Here is the input.
Amino acid sequence: MPDLPPLKIHVAIATVGRAAILCQVLRLLASQSRRPDGVVVVGTCAGDVDGVSRAFPGSEVLISQKGLCRQRNMALRHLVGRADIVVFFDDDFLPESDYLAEVERRMAADPAVVGLTGQLLADGAHTSEISFTEGVRILENSHVPPRLKTERTSWLYGCNMAIRTAAAPALRFDECLPLYGWQEDVDFSHRLGSFGTMLRSRELTGVHLGARSGRISGVRFGYSQIANIVYLRRKQTIGLRHGFGLMARNVASNLARSVWPEPHIDRRGRLAGNAIGFIDLLRGRVDPGRVERL
Here is the structure.
């Protein structure tokens, strides 16, 4: 088998208000069988990145304005000319120990592949929050279900996405999606996909803890559930069925569960945000940026 061409792989992590979890994730990242060529952590203040240099010696720390898209774009600008592949991890994502090795193998084997995302062993964002200890236990006992197949995809899941920088060197996340940037990964993926193949790989696995700390308020998130979909539909970077189907399901869930909400979800706040979003839509002034003023 011929030697794989060398690729420079850098990991970028945007973080807000989760320094303790972030440092645990960074210590785990150090155990990758293929170590990253660099790690860039982008916080919004010193408290966000406290302990990073000890958790992963040699990592680079940047301070940005708050906002997932702004923070990820700062990392991309910082890595121009230095990285062949940028792997974006959420600050509560635990990658399997061979994650970066598999990214390198896939990207080196097929130059047409411009984006990769994994198939998760567990995702606390869609259930209840998973503790770091439980996440590590899941990784240590992981067996990828046979039903999971490597397949083409039009969407890279934002908690773990690898991009080939040469495919679209000027591509950036849309900073009109502020704060949590809900659906920023769908928008970015749609634009990246026009430059080549994107895959959801069964060889890339991990656990998304779904940490609740650092999240935006229920009202703000509920507003984004309306405004961001409308905005991306106007951009035509989210499908009609996907976009409005997602909106309808979210509003229905917020309405149905507002009577007996889950302890970890502010359903009533989200429902109030949904209502403000619909009112703005009817008035012709719905705007994702309004969440910064709510």
